[in-house]
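Researcher: Structure prediction, please.
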Amino acid sequence: MKDKVINIGSVSLRTKMRRVVWNVTCFLLFRPFPTKLFWWWRWLLLRLFGAKIDFSAHVYSSVRIWAPWNLKMEKDSCLGPHVICYNQAMISLEDHAIVSQYAYLCTAGHEIDKPNTANSGLIVAPITIDKNAWIGTRAYINMGVEIGEGAIVGATASVFKDVEPWMVVGGNPAKIIRERRKEDE
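Model: Predicted structure follows.
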């Protein structure tokens, strides 16, 4: 993970201004349209704000996205109800990746090895959820983590390290529970 971490120091003024516009748009035009009937409207707004999102991807209206321009969702991926995407760095969901309700995807933190942690620089690292992976309800995914193809992160798990493909993990911190059988076996 260390090789993925970037020290950005602080959030730029340009990003702060983009976020103001996004937050107003989200409040007025994204969140008030919760039914499946308006999925295309949410898709369009996310695209207008720079998200790379496939037409078949699904985002619930209660999802909180910090920066749509740092979101990539491929075919049939899903961000479930009340998911928080604190995406100061890129969050990528590959084909058929699912993030269940109330999960928290966090791409930012602070440099903790400095004496004054409260004022230390902001660090960011991307999160990648590979195809056919599933993040359970209320799970926490830390910055710089990759969830491997077909992996399952159990409900309420806290993931701080990459999860190997086709593994089932759970707990805090997440530990391997077992290997998942592939569909073709």
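Model: The chain is about 15% helix and 30% strand.
Researcher: Thanks, that helps.
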